Amino acid sequence: xxxxxxxxxxxxxxxxxxxxxxxxxxxxxxxxxxxxxxxxxxxxxxxxxxxxxxxxxxxxxxxxxxxxxxxxxxxxxxxxxxxxxxxxxxxxxxxxxxxxxxxxxxxxxxxxxxxxxxxxxxxxxxxxxxxxxxxxxxxxxxxxxxxxxxxxxxxxxxxxxxxxxxxxxxxxxxxxxxxxxxxxxxxxxxxxxxxxxxxxxxxxxxxxxxxxxxxxxxxxxxxxxxxxxxxxxxxxxxxxxxxxxxxxxxxxxxxxxxxxxxxxxxx
Length: 267
Known about the structure:
The chain has helices spanning 17-28, 30-40, 60-65, 93-103, 105-108, 114-120, 129-145, 156-165, 169-174, 178-182, 185-189, 201-211, 216-219, 245-254, 256-261, and strands spanning 2-4, 8-9, 49-51, 54-55, 68-69, 86-90, 194-197. The protein is α/β, with parallel strands linked by helices.
């Protein structure tokens, strides 16, 4: 999570959040103040900037590991910044699932005990994509539920999204039903967040920064800035090469809330 005097940036995993963090650090830190001064030929005057590494408790595995990271959620925004606009990054849900698979974070931080995973998937951690989806549907789902009873036909990405963006995530999961998803009532509980898009991240991030009084000369470096923390194993393969038609159909049904939030990805 990044706090500025103008907005809060929530870094949702596997969306390009590392790129955004690096860009904001460059612009808003002391180095950024120098960059801004050179662009405007003024004395350096860095903008207020704080990057928070917060406890991550959205899953049983994160709690067990005592994990802390930059991926603080909406409910963790400090009281001092709760009145500011909130910005984050959205990614096509199917593409993000592939990115999670190829990034391999789940190997070092498995969603369940190794003996349970290997009893179900003997080749773990060498899983094919369809095996990874099955692991997510079984162990990943239980990991993010954290003992809550699931009363809706939804997938782990929906639960992760609610734990990350809902202002009262435990209450949201306790009240989660298919009707709450399908009639839009759950969607209306979500706070106002301005989402940039992974697929257009550089121009949309520049446009956002221009709205907050950064000049084009200050943000021009973003056009050529390299991607960071990308899942290189994909080698440019699209998500459609990973999902079978049936796997895509199941994913879209179980993660339908995400396509309500982001109708631009529904087609």
